[in-house]
């Protein structure tokens, strides 16, 4: 289980300083994601996601189950490596999956013990911090994550449960409304 | 495009002798396939297929489009390598795909110019020969394939268009009827 919380970053320099003082820098990545809708299920309603990702490590196909906790983005995640991005996309399209949206990000990954910290810059959205723990124990993992979030100056109640994809689709929707 | 015909083999020794005299042995493989039904489309009607395969080279995910020729098994095929068989199966099941059936085969592959010859032994079904050419020119490919089939003693009209999966499902169905 991936226990995960996300916060919007207003002062990137300040946050990056705090993170680099309390956690170890791991790697910088550029990720390009394509999300799909199901041919006969509304993922917006079932709260699932299907994604193919392209990054410097290669390509992956990931299924995300519905979120199972109110305060966090915790959910089941099943990920497999694939050897061809375009062909996987083509298989999904032929099966009736429709492209829902695309997310392009620069991600700086830090580690503090079990906690993975992602300092993200998302095209069209701006900067965010995601804190993650892989764990079988939801409550313990949440406690650790929210303790560290507080140390960075984030309030638990400002945690964002929406995915980047949902936020991008919101922006697109709001732009259409105007 | 994969232009492909299949024939049932009654005398395996005789056919293997003829093939080994006219083509070059490439490799012997053991393949284990799991086929899926679509969550909201009847693949038996649309003549599509979705398969994950385990063999000595690793794992693949393959989509097969509907057959596009009356006499052969010619169809679009999109194949990607995957790094985990069970997790890919789990993703498909979570997306609502249902296991349709399993095919286990021993395959001896020979080559004669462009023609790939597969001498297959299929669990529950017996022995078959498949002749394949990868080609953009259907008619030319068919001509080459049927010429060689005739040389091996197979009559074009005895070509089998059913997949091994369909044949295995037929056997299961007939056993239930009895």
Task: Give the arrangement of secondary structure elements.
Two copies of one chain form a homodimer.
Chain A: E1 2-8, H1 12-22, E2 24-37, H2 43-46, E3 49-55, E4 58-67, E5 75-82, H3 85-94, E6 98-112, E7 115-122, E8 126-134, H4 138-151, H5 164-177
Antiparallel strand pairs in A: 1-8, 2-3, 2-6, 3-4, 4-5, 6-7, 7-8
Summarize the structure.
2 copies of one chain form a homodimer. By secondary structure, chain A is an alpha+beta fold.
Structure description:
The structure is a homodimer of 178-residue chains. The first copy, chain A, contains five helices and eight strands, in the order βαβαβββαβββαα. By secondary structure, chain A is of the alpha+beta class. The first copy, chain A, has a single domain, classed as Hypothetical Protein Pfu-838710-001, CATH 2.40.320.10. Chain A is 30% helix and 44% strand. Chains A and B meet through β4, β5 and α3 of A and β4, β5 and α3 of B.
Query: What ranges of chain A have pLDDT less than 50 throughout 5 or more consecutive residues?
Result: none
Strand content of chain A: 35-45%
Most extensive interface, chain pair and sizes: A-B, 23 and 23 residues
Radius of gyration of chain A: 16 Å
Number of strands of chain A: 8
Which class best fits the helix and strand makeup of chain A? alpha+beta
Give a quick set of tags describing it.
eight-stranded antiparallel beta sheet, homodimer, about 180 residues, Hypothetical Protein Pfu-838710-001
